[in-house]
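Record 1 of the preview.
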Amino acid sequence: MRILRRLFLFLTPYWKTLLINAVLLLGRAGMELIPPLFQRAIVDEVIEARDLTRLGTLVGLLLGTYSLRLLINVGDMYIRHALGERFILDLRVRLYAYLQRLSLSFFERTSTGELMSRVTNDVNALEQFVTHGSALTAVDLLRLVGAAIVLFLLDWRLALLVLLPVPVLAVALRYFNTRVRPIYRRVRDRLGDINARLQDSLSGIRVIQAFGQEEREMERFAVESESYYQARVQGIRYWSTFFPAMHFVASLGTVIVLGCGAVMVVRGELSLGTMIAFLSYITSLYQPINRLTEIDNVFQQAIAAGERIFELLDVMPEIKDAPDAIELPHIRGEVAFHNVSFRYSTGDEVLRDVTFRMAAGEMVALVGPSGAGKTSIANLLCRFYDPTQGRITVDGHDLRKVKLSSLRKQVAVVLQDTFLFNTTVRENLLYGKPDATDEELITAAKTAYAHDFIMALPDGYDTEIGERGVKLSGGQKQRLALARAILADPRILILDEATSSVDAEAEYLIQQALESVLKGRTSLVIAHRLSTIRDADKIIALEEGRIIEVGDHHELMRHGGLYSQLYRRQLELAATDEKDDSR
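->
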């Protein structure tokens, strides 16, 4: 019931539409109860009395009632279904917007396919709840109460007999609910698993085909689909037995009225018209009961979907603005890490008491073996995570005390694994600055040495580049990512191994671009190829989450420490590769 209450609370913004619909539902319920009274009058006052005087009036009133009911039903159906679509639209957008605010750690532990299932399938499952569940429950309850009152007014003895099956239906419905609710939750979960498997497989289709694992992946998907099928069939087994049984129990009311009512008519204890009206009202009594049992099925599915949606909405962002957060003003770009330690929620401590400063406009490079904590420092500077100890400041402002949006407007990141959207080159570049002019766009592309290859594409800046930029080479994608960052005009630029996955020619072009891009900006460079950071103002060598040494290239080479060892090792490997190539 808690989930249902929350679902109904979600409908409160639409109270005006709900109020109009409530009036229509009252009218609809009333129109359902009137026709049998006219039918009774026609039988008793016209047919039985052999008097046609009132026939025209009664038939006209009956026709008018049906016409009015038609108009009410049209308005009710349109408003109800339009409301359902609006509710689904608003909920999906709200859910998507909430996902945008969640921290990176949440997405690292949650499958993308599972999230897609909740935003699409689970939200869609609530459409029936809005359009049929809540509204028809109200009208059917009104019909049920109204029909019961009229039946008692017509003949209380028959009314009691007709209501005999109702307790049986109530007990059966409670039993059905306790059995079917966990099944529907399992169905939603299995559907989420299928989406997760599908998303994972399609994203990794190149790897699957490269290793010839198509058959294995097909078997894994078949297993997930089989689990979903079994859960669905278990639910079908319950409701395919339950609902026909409910209809059978309800039909006993008709048998009771026909049997007992016929005796009472023959004995003169009941008029024929009253008996015919009774049969019509039995429909108005049992049809809502039957439909309420079916609507209950809709509620159970809505509860299962609602649980999964609310689980998502109840996740609290780990990284969010403090209540007293201020807008970060235009910064010079001075960065300081003060005794920073950090651990991921699922791992060991990756940074230990890290302290360093970056002057405004300074280029600082991070080097060290894999797992030393280089990317973690970049993540903390973007405030994707918060330190477990210590603090980070930009121009003296603690990152925890400034608004995230104002920080990230002044920081740009170019990652090793470049992500591009499945749209045009232009739209990908404008992601950094949506209101940029064409002149600014082209200038950024030229600065990143990307303009020439863009113009060589079939439609230039309007060329569709495919999912994750699949139609471009690695170097082209990196230069587009760099141009996107340049267009955003950040005061702080983070380059996370931006040249490690490209060939020598692409690396040369990117390095040429970086020389002009980094001027006047504070830049944090995570380097894989140490030859690219020889000119850095400061090089910080990390090992096992600690700063081992700090200095420029020449100082660290003279020191003979970690940086010197890494640099010489790379030179030796490069020399070996050249010898192999010359053979």
